[in-house]
Amino acid sequence: MNDIQILGKIPLYGEMAAQGSKNAVLPMMAASLLHRGTTTLLNVPCIQDVDCMVGILRKLGAKVYREGREMQIDASCLDSCEISLDYVQKMRSSIMVLGPLVARLGQAVTHYPGGCSIGKRPVDYHVKLLRDLGITVKEEGDRIEAKADHCHGCELRLCFPSVGATENAVMAAAGAEGETVIRNCAREPEIVELCRFLECMGIETKGAGTDTICLRGQKSKNDPVYRVCGDRIAAGTYLAAAAVTGGHIRITDVPVYYMEATLRALRACGCQIMTENDCIHLSAPRNLTAIPYLETEVYPGFPTDMQSVLLTVLCCGIGESRLRETIFEGRFETAAELLRMGADITVKDNCAVVKGGAGLSGSTVRARDLRGGAALIVAGLAAKGWTVVKDCGHVDRGYEDIADNLRKLGAEVRRVGTKTKEESRAVG
Ligand code: UD1
After folding, report:
1. Of 46, 116, 154, 279, which is the active-site residue?
2. Longest pairwise C-alpha distance within the chain
3. Of ligand 1's atoms, which has the minimum distance to the CA of residue 49?
4. pTM of the predicted protein model
5. Residue 360 Cα distances to 309, 315, 339, angstroms
């Protein structure tokens, strides 16, 4: 059921564990194709993007077994080099299968997924890096075909530190001969996690988390077993939910060290936050306050994936805030939905000016994208009366049981709407 109905103004209290990280697990699943054996991943989140990646791997011939949050991928034998079009359309990050697949099989085919609601999101950086590695990449219409007879390590440079292009290059280079140095690469935590995972396979890497990564391509030696870290964006979303309801929550299993910018922003809004090991406690103030200016940046700056959720928080903060989006050109669609709930937001040149504190009121709104949908659910928790967030299928791509988790923290939240075909089949 794709709609979520929320009764606002109920403070959230309690404790929860963060789910495994979506953006960390997807590249690891893609990288499992480099290994002619079995990969075991632990703490895998039960979300739709993971289901989609499972579909891609199975269509390529890998055997994937799942039990709860444990997943085994046996990629000893692959029988196709084509990433199924069905999945390409469902998930943009299918592009990150291209690098490891061509490294493994010498050939890979995918399709260009086109634009999406947060921006155009081209794949030109991915294609350029693969070409620089000596891979022939042909683009015909939407079709992208990559062929590598001999892939040699070399020096690569990104013109912008794209997360996905860095991951693709790291995985393709792991299958190339000799050493590759990737400069101006992304420093996001998910890249550090990917490199640690490759090390478990026996592939040596240096410099992950800095702007230069070096790795020597070689055959994977070991069957890796890796525990996926907690999801810093999902954890940040629940903290924001507690903040806007005047609640107090504790989240465990969180990569606290990856969340500094988010915690700084929530503290700037007046929240009291304490951290210890892998736990975060948040106590909301009586009244949230505005943030005069904040912009999204590449890591370690404030993450673009938290922008929509913070926008909701700022609608509740007394005073005027400015929030600039610098990574994705179309990420303010959620602002239009928040206006329906009584928010005062003006967006100009990718900067939102928010006059907050007057209160939100329940309404029917539509999730346009994954993080925007989560931001609307958070807005529903803050608003007076009932809110219906339609099309929460977007949210289920990345959040495990969001309605259920919020209910356990005391919220009045329920799934409504007609069942999807898949849900009807599962029941019938
Ligand atoms: C990843 C994350 C996403 C996050 C984003 C930025 C995953 C599965 N997704 O997405 O949640 O919001 O990082 O932290 O990990 N660009 C190009 N050409 C390219 C590639 C990117 O122009 O070939 C542009 C994009 O349109 C965007 C910017 O570069 O404007 C950053 O994108 P990128 O870092 O690549 O994001 P993703 O890897 O797609």
Report:
1. 116
2. 63
3. 8
4. 0.96
5. 14, 8, 9
Distance, in Å, from the CA atom of 21 to the CA atom of 197, rounded to the nearest integer, reads: 14
Distance 175 CA to ligand 1 centre (A): 23
Contact 62, 75 (CB under 8 A): yes
Q: What are phi and psi of 324, to 5 degrees?
A: -105, 135
* Catalytic residue check, 154: no
Cα gap 354→318, rounded to integer Å: 10
Q: How far apart are CA 267 and CA 273, in angstroms?
A: 7
d(CA 410, ligand 1 centre) in Å = 35
What does the DSSP 8-state code read for residue 96?
G
Backbone phi, then psi, for 13, in 5-degree steps? -135, 150
User: pLDDT of the chain along its 428 residues, tens only?
Assistant: 799 999 999 999 999 999 999 999 999 999 999 999 999 999 999 999 999 999 999 999 999 999 999 999 999 999 999 999 989 988 888 999 999 999 999 999 999 876 567 888 889 999 999 999 999 999 999 899 999 987 889 999 999 999 999 999 999 999 888 999 999 999 999 999 999 999 999 999 999 999 999 999 888 788 999 999 999 999 999 999 999 999 999 999 999 999 999 999 999 999 999 999 999 999 999 999 999 999 999 999 999 999 999 999 999 999 999 999 999 988 999 999 999 999 999 999 999 999 998 999 999 999 999 999 999 999 999 999 999 999 999 999 999 999 999 999 999 999 997 655 554 444 33
**What's the CA gap between 164 and 124, in Å, rounded?**
11
**Which ligand 1 atom is at minimum distance from the Cα of 329?**
30
Q: Looking at ligand 1, which residue's alpha carbon is closest to its atom 8? A: 23
Smallest CA separation from ligand 1 atom 1, residue? 163
Q: 102 near 148, Cβ under 8 Å?
A: yes
